[in-house]
Amino acid sequence: MQISFNWLKELVPLEADVDEIAERLTMLGLEIEAIRRPGEGMENVYVGKILDIQPHPDADKLVVCQTDTGRGETLQIICGAKNMKVGDKVPTAIDGAVLPGGFKIGSRKMRGIQSCGMMCSARELGLGEEHEGLLILEEDAPLGEDIRDYLGLNDVVFEIEVTPNRGDWASMIGVARELAAFYGKEIIWPDESVEESGVPAADCSSITIEDADLCPRYAGRILRNIVVKPSPPWLCSRLIAAGQRPINNVVDITNYILMETGHPLHAFDYDKLCENRIVVRRAQEGEKINTLDGESRQLDSEMLTIADGKNPQAVAGVMGGADSEVGEGTKTILLESAWFEARSVRRTSRCLSLSTEASQRFQRGADMNMVTFALNRASRLMQELAEAEVAPGILDTWPEKRDTPPVTLRYDRTTSHVGVEIPPADQKAFLQSLGFTLESEDDSSATFKVPSWRHDVRHEADLIEEVARLYGYENIPITMPPVRQSDSVFAPRATPLRNFRSYLAGQGLTEIMNWSFGSTEALANTGFVAEDAALVRLANPLSESYAVMRASLLPGLFGTGAYNAKRGRRNLQLFELGPVYLSRPDEILPDEPMYLGILLCGSAPGHWSQEERPLDFYDIKGCLDDMGRFFKKEFSLVAGESAAFQSGQYAEIKWRKHSLGQLGKVSDDAVKFFDLPENSYALEINLETLLSRMAGPKQFTAIPQYPASLRDLAVVVDQSLPAQELLATTRQAAGPLLVSVDIFDVYSGKPLPSDKKSVALSLIFQSPERTLTDKDTQKAMDRIVVRLQKDLGAELR
Amino acid sequence: MKEEFVHMEQEALSRIAGAPDLKTLDDVRVAFLGRKGQITEILKGLGNASPEERRSLGQTANQLKGRVTQALEERKAVLEQALRQEKAQQQRVDLSLPGREAPRGQVHLLNQIADEISDIFIQMGFQLALGPDVETEYYNFDALNTPDDHPARDSHDTFFVKPGVVLRTQTSPVQIRIMEQTRPPVAIIAPGRVYRVDLDATHSPMFVQMEGLLVDKGITFSDLKGTLMHFIHSFFGPDIQVRFRPHFFPFTEPSAEVDILWTAKDRHTGETKSKWLEILGCGMVHPEVFKNVSYDYEEYSGYAFGLGIDRIAMVRHGISSITHLYENDMRFLEQF
Asked: More exposed terminus of chain A, fewer Cβ within 10 Å: N or C?
């Protein structure tokens, strides 16, 4: 909503300046989004008077005018307009003037004759689209006056955000009412008196409300001998200040009244209404109407329509119909001012995908008591500006009076909710200044009738807010509450998850955060195989690229990898920690397990002292091993196949019997689809099992008192023998004295046969009870060698 | 004999002083003080002398031995020092070459901020709570006093999964879920992802919010002001100006939005400008909300607030566009 400061001052006497009003509106809850000064930038344009008009000797379409600027000089101005005559007053830009948009006016020769300055059209002053002719000012316009003052362009416009609960703020009177309440002033109501003449309205038309549930009140006036023409400058400038484009006087007046009162009006061409009458009824299913925007619209039986004796002529509260549109030939209009049920207008507007100034206001709830005021105000302006003859009488049909139930305020509830004691007399005065009227009261409470424009007030809490608002939020004290904790724990996983996140970052991984939705195609290309039903699809996605809630973190990680690779970062260590979304057959809401995804690309972080090392499978596996350390769990890998991963470097991650995830080298196909760096490795794991089985506090193990005995052992085994088997067999054979065995070297190549490899183990033997002798250790070593030879065909090296 | 001593001492001292390295020096030591060294021999030969002679010569010889020993040690120290210096010289490094850093990683800025904000409230006694991203319309709207025909729904551009199921447009549904689970007192904060159908330079279809809720006996709007002032001063600095202004939310009454007066340098002109920036919405829990979770409005009161973690991150760190937060450009992520 755009609020003109000049206009506002006509409705409520304000002494405060722009800044204070802006501050006050803000603190009353009308958030100011911007402050505009429409006349700003316009300079040196005055009310001038044309003294002489002569044809241009060398140009048929131009004339040479002598214009008195009223500032002690007469300018010779060449002009292409035709609508002016000698004696007309026009906006005159002198040499050096600036027009809106920074357009500078100077002197120049036009077809050999000097032209100084310019006479302006409405459009050139930023007053609408009219540019065929000059803007002819009123005869009594004071010669030489700054045009900004004369046209009211020296205005300040507050662009305010109207919260959905306060439809009444979407009007000048609504905003004025709020300021009046705060400053203790009265609203200056604009003149609504009309002179009536001719045949009474009731004798030439009628209004029938068939569906009073959707339209409890409908009023109309008949206006005859309308002259449709452009609106005067003051009206244009008002509309422009309010963000509206002037069209013609009839349309402009209804828009003006909409801005002034917040009440939408509609003008029908009376002669085009079948039987010259109005029937307010639900549409018949499938009934059609051509609306003013040039569309043909089909109505359903729940939509309210304003019909004539036969057909719908308007979609109630939303938009008028083209068949009864007011145009150049219109003589008589029927002016509608009605109150439509908010719910019905919202539904219709939504079903037709048609949102208008009118529908937005009715949707928020109009003021039923504003119906005749708005109608009379508009009729008065029609009389003034469109030469209308107003037929005697209002066709006011009001089958259902609706009063909102009164609301009681217990004064001490204000204190206990706001935290400050506000005297009951002040509380009462605040509410009364806002239009609440006292119905009954006692010492501790009062019951108020809610004003007809306040559809948002139903509860005591609503009254408390009104009191707090007028008291001023800034005056409410600051206190610290005692925070008593509930005895439940609501998010037991939050802390471990946060620690895990820091742990991963500490491992050198950078956390990324992707949107939770993606495309099914990307998902499929990460090897995600799922029944379609497992996916959570959006009914109204932004686009196909974001149509499905992610069921895996890999598409996002791969996308991010590609994004950064394209920008020259080919060595990446990324992780994402977040939910994925999987439908559950018997539940309304999907499962949202917490996942971890890791992507490694390119080479390990390098240093000038050593050669860059390309990443390999064991880097991504190292990530898993690190995780194992964090969660104090040992994972196992089971070789598998996936389209997104390279065969032979891909495995399922298991913990005990639980399948938790996958890791491996990203396949060439996936690299190509996502445009990833070639040497990429990824891991994805469901953390739910791990988070729900966090190991308890670690228990102390006694530090060994006796020295350890260290041995190395190198064996030659088949190339295909997994290291895991070598280690397991070693452990089995060694007996209890072996405390650890590690692989410290794997070698294949000459002089070994190509199907063999040499694996070097380092073993630590130790006893908690005594110092081991060489003999003890050797016995264990012998057992190991024998078993390795026997079970795995190993040879000592 | 004494002359012999003097001569011997001179020779010894001169050879010690002339020893170019530790090896030569040791040879000198052996030549004079070794088992068959000249001074050792003298001392051995004293056994044959008369007692007086023995005392006099012995004293002189011992003094001689002492002086030579000291000279040896001094020379040794000099030579060792030279050796250390030479070694150090050879092992000099270019101090300016980069060191071996541990690999660099970081938590996403939004999670850093969420943690930081959480900590402030946790210190005050709040605890974390979480709710699902895919939510029923009941929890996201109806239970929060936003029925289907409520005008407030118009401003939420909601993603739908199917009728009755949406991507939550706010973290507020967590309030309902928690209040359904437990009786007052309740003191929670709930960070999480939220979604709206909106995409441009200032809107992301997914963003992160944090909800707060405190319900107990006697909680007031002034408590809400105190709590949030404490948070803002902890997070943005103790001198920041704060204002609470009336606003509307369907599930709070009275409601407010909170602005901070933020001073920032214009990237282009270099001018510093102060501007009120909205950072959160809040209010006293609406009686209808209490009714929906069977809390007695006569007995309990409470406040709720919701803040945009993205917005707060952008304000504090001077981030120009929300797209940076979800683009995952390393050049962005590594800055924080």
From this structure: C
* Whether the Cβ atoms of residue A54 and residue A64 lie closer than 8 Å to each other: yes
Tell me the average pLDDT of chain B.
Answer: 92
Chains A, B: CB contacts within 8 A come to 260
Question: How many beta carbons lie within 10 A of that of residue B139, not counting itself?
Answer: 22
Q: Report the C-alpha gap between A497 and A578 in whole angstroms.
A: 10
Q: How confident is the model at residue A154 (pLDDT cuts 50, 70, 90)?
A: confident
Number of domains in chain A: 6
Of B36, B60, B90, the domain-final residue: B90
In our burial notation (b when 16+ CB lie closer than 10 A, e otherwise), range B13-32 reads bebbeebeeeeebeebbeeb
Residue A392 lies in a domain: yes
Domain-located, residue A499: yes
Please answer yes or no on whether B284 and A461 come within 8 Å at the CB atom: yes
B44 against A362, higher pLDDT: A362
**B218 and B296 share a domain?**
yes
Confidence class of residue A530 from pLDDT cuts 50, 70 and 90? low
Residue A191 lies in a domain: no
| Banded model confidence at residue B155, pLDDT cuts 50, 70, 90 | low
Which of A44-48, A57-61, B330-334 is predicted least confidently? A57-61
Give the CA-trace dihedral at B321, B327, B328, B331, to 10 degrees: -50
Residue B200 near residue B289, CB atoms below 8 Å: no
**With contact defined as beta carbons under 8 Å apart, do B225 and B214 qualify?**
no
Q: Which long-range contacts (CB under 8 A, 24 or more apart) does B319-322 make?
A: B320/B267, B321/B201, B321/B202, B322/B201, B322/B202, B322/B203, B322/B204, B322/B207
Encoded tokens for A526: 């990460």
Residue A481 forms contact with B (CB below 8 Å) = yes
User: Looking at the structure, do residues B273 and B181 belong to the same domain, yes or no?
Assistant: yes
pTM of the prediction? 0.86
Domain total of chain B: 2
Segment 142-171 of chain A within 8 Å of chain B by CB: 163-167
Report how far residue A247's alpha carbon sits from residue A465's, in angstroms, rounded to the nearest whole number.
41
Residues B217/B236, Cβ–Cβ less than 8 Å: no
Segments of chain B assigned E as strands: 127-128, 134-136, 160-162, 165-167, 186-195, 206-216, 241-246, 252-265, 272-285, 301-308
Assess A597–B contact: CB distance below 8 Å, yes or no: no
Model confidence at A282, in pLDDT bands (50, 70, 90)? very high
Q: How far apart are CA A785 and CA A716, in angstroms?
A: 11
Owning domain of residue B145: 109-333
Residue A35 confidence (pLDDT) above 70: yes
| Domain finish residue from B26, B57, B90 | B90
Residues of chain B with Cβ-Cβ distance to A543 below 8 Å are none
pLDDT for A614 beyond 80: yes
Do residues A274 and A259 both lie within one domain? yes
The type of residue at A752 is: L
Which of A480, A491, A549 is facing B226, going by the closest CB pair?
A: A480
The alpha-carbon gap from B69 to the nearest alpha carbon of chain A, in Å, equals 43
Nearest CA in chain A to B229: A478
- Domain holding A88, by residue range, is 43-150
Q: Which of A570, A589, A613 to mutate to test the interface with B (most CBs of B within 10 A)?
A: A589
Contact between B326 and A514 using a beta-carbon 8 Å cutoff:
yes
Token pair for A451: 């004003």
The token pair that represents A783 in the structure block: 């057992």
| Cβ separation A418–B222 shorter than 8 A | yes
pLDDT digits (tens, 9 = 90+) for B161-204: 999 999 999 999 999 999 999 999 999 999 999 999 988 878 99
Spell out which residues of chain A touch residue B330, defining contact as CB-CB under 8 Å. 510, 564, 567, 569, 572
Query: Considering the domain boundaries, does residue A483 fall inside one?
Result: no
Q: What is the mean pLDDT of residues A379-384?
A: 96
With CA atoms as reference, the chain A residue closest to B197 would be A542
